[in-house]
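Give me structure tokens for this 275-residue protein.
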Amino acid sequence: MKKLKWALGFLSLLAITGCSDDVYDGYYYDTAYYDPYYGAYDAAWSYYWVDPVYGYWYYSIGGVLPQSTVSGLPQAPVDVNAAAAQLAANASSTFTPAGCATATASGATVNYTLDNCAAQVALQQISGDVQVVLADNQGQLSINATSSNLTINGAPYNLSMQVASSSPEGDQRKVTITSNSYSPDRFDSRSSESTITWVSGSGCFTLDGQSRSTRGDRNATTTVSGYQRCANQCPSAGTVTTQTSEGTFSSSFNGSNTLEVTSPGDDTQTYSLDC
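Here you go.
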């Protein structure tokens, strides 16, 4: 009898200490997977818009004006209309295949129409309309971008972001992004702040940021640290931590085309990456 009581007590202890499976809401796994995608989309857009005009902007405005080789006097400040025209002209080389993108500049505004395009680092199957407005914010390059009827990788996508850049340090580039961009198929809302750095012309960027997202009555806060990605490659580094009411969900990137998201109870879900 004592042996039987011991056995029953042992089984009860196992049940209490976790033999039963934990069940977590799929939204939290999805958040740890999708949020880095949306952050990478923001980073990629900013790279395409900022890199072509970054050096020109900061060597033509606000305290770092180069002198004209003819007159020896400082050159005129940057022309936002000329910068917009340059971005519109670059569309045919930024987006592939040839002819998939049209872009027109009107003053400081660029309007893109995209038809199943891809772009160099992180954007694939892009269709719809995107509007970009350039501005000089006290000597800093500022960009506001919105979209209509946009899809990325076959899913509807709401693009809404503001980009603020910093003065260059050699070939190093840095921008900060405030974004409300997300796919309504996955989230009901998303807001984020991130910092993107890269070397001019490299086709690579590093992302650090934090976001808050909701779906129904659920919400999560996600931090992405050291996310690194280059053209035509899977993310090579970076960690993701998603804080939820059910605990922390986490993942990391290592250059493979899969991502494993781990729950607070060490359960995992594996996702394929589009890269």
